[in-house]
Amino acid sequence: MIIGVFDSGIGGLSVANAIKKAMPEHEIRFVNDREHVPYGTKTKQELLKLALPILTSMQAGGCQVIVIACNTLSTTLISDLRAKLSVPLVAIEPMVKPAANMTKTGVIGVCATPATLASNRYAQLKQDYADGIKVIEPDCSNWAELIERDRIDRKQIKSTVDDLILKGVDVIVLGCTHYHWIEEDVRKWADGKAEVIQPEEAIIRRLRHTLEQLA
Ligand code: DGL
Q: Which residues of 119-154 are buried (b: 16+ CB within 10 A; e: fewer)?
């Protein structure tokens, strides 16, 4: 099978690498749109205009399934994209449900882009799964771009993590694939006081299921 993986930038590369490792028998085609990073501060219309032509050409180029390795696109546009493309799309979303199930303090932190946090889908996830849970959403608006350009501000991110811990957070959701590249740092700064979760394993499970249905 030919599996496409798409993101604005290097966030999706982390996901593509994980898929490649788990499914070496398939061809993985990773495509991004580095020129337009960050996606997370753009409007829905801008995102559609940027992403749709790329995804359409991935479909035309033979991708049999495409992983939207971008929480921003998945949470803002997945239904529009599904309506416009015929290839199955596997969508990454912030892990609100697992975090709500895991927390003991009743306080979780969701690190994500402004567009993800403002999306209806994210609001729905919180309503469906995090009722009665306090969800803290720190300002991560410049993280994706800094990670993309290899100019990570570790001091800023550490102080964000410190603040989450101070507020009683015991699960930190990495709700943007760019943050997968700083997962180990975040875990280190959380210092055992919070679990740090991201959806690569869950996406691989979902992808396997989709591939089984296609076979
Ligand atoms: N990696 C993407 C996400 O998961 C988008 C980051 C960006 O370009 O702002 O949300």
A: bebbeebbeeebeebebebbebeebbbbbbeeebee
Domain that holds residue 79: 2-93+200-214
> What's the pLDDT at 215?
86
Same domain, 162 and 175: yes
Examine the domain organization and report whether 16 and 79 are in the same domain: yes
12 lies in the same domain as 30:
yes
Assess whether 106 and 190 both reside in one domain. Answer: yes
Active site residue 176: yes
Specify the CATH number for the domain of residue 89. Answer: 3.40.50.1860
The whole-number mean pLDDT for each consecutive block of 10 residues of the chain, a chain of 215 residues, reads: 98 98 98 98 98 98 98 98 98 98 98 98 98 98 97 96 98 98 97 98 98 93
**Mutation choice for ligand 1 from 36, 46, 176, CB with most ligand atoms inside 8 A:** 176
Amino acid at 91: A
User: 208 C-alpha to center of ligand 1: Å?
Assistant: 23
**Catalytic option among 63, 111, 140, 176:** 176
